Amino acid sequence: GDSVTQMEGPVTLSEEAFLTINCTYTATGYPSLFWYVQYPGEGLQLLLKATKADDKGSNKGFEATYRKETTSFHLEKGSVQVSDSAVYFCALSERRRNAGNMLTFGGGTRLMVKP
Amino acid sequence: DGGITQSPKYLFRKEGQNVTLSCEQNLNHDAMYWYRQDPGQGLRLIYYSQIVNDFQKGDIAEGYSVSREKKESFPLTVTSAQKNPTAFYLCASNVAGFDNEQFFGPGTRLTVL
User: Fold this and answer.
1) Three-state secondary structure call for residue A59
2) Cα separation of A2 and A40, whole Å?
């Protein structure tokens, strides 16, 4: 079945440091890929997405490129801020027969940014 | 404003009681979902519904039940058969489609006393 693997956290960085959160996936077809962010005590918000190979999703300074050859979708940001402290989830969506598009989530990576 | 509301935000339950978590959306989405999140873990799918009056079990449906009598509402009942119900519950919805994002509610934190 489909699966998503993320690097374990927490990831602790100083403000203005470079961020990479690794994400790799296993899927039988050609999934769409997503990054969601969860702030403490809240639901998930979509951060960015990519729907086909070599697409780059970007939002709020975050970027991720859909790499089919390495089955990866690593999240990057050039200069993190304290306000970026949150849990980040990588997810894939693949159409399932009679079930529409279902999301499979990674385990989440907690990011802590220190001033 | 369009969005998803969940209530209550915090819920306490005694062992042996059934409790119902509310999820309402005014986004006109066909599909709705319930997830469970445990501390430090990802999301696991409990139930989902693609259309009114139809729903399917997800990966961890045992001890839970749902109904979908209206397009905008998808309540989740945590029954006494759920052995470890303390968790954070998230409801989501989307337009049915391959790459359409899911929109999430703010969540309900359930604690069994």
Assistant:
1) strand
2) 28
Inform me whether the C-beta atom of residue A114 falls under 8 Å from chain B C-beta atoms.
Answer: no
Residues 6+ apart with CB under 8 A from B47: B33, B34, B55, B56, B57, B58, B61, B64, B66, B76
The DSSP annotation for B16-57 comes to T--EEEEEEE-S--SEEEEEEE-TT--EEEEEEEEETTEEEE
- Distance from the Cα of A18 to chain B's closest Cα (Å) equals 23
* A27 in B contact zone (CB under 8 Å): no
State pLDDT tens for residues A62-109: 999 999 999 999 999 999 999 999 999 999 987 665 556 678 899 999
Coil, strand, or helix at residue A14?
strand
Nearest residue to B70 (alpha-carbon basis) of B53, B95, B92, B55? B53
Report the alpha-carbon distance of residue B48 to residue B112 in Å, rounded. 24
Neighbours of B11 (CB within 10 A): 17
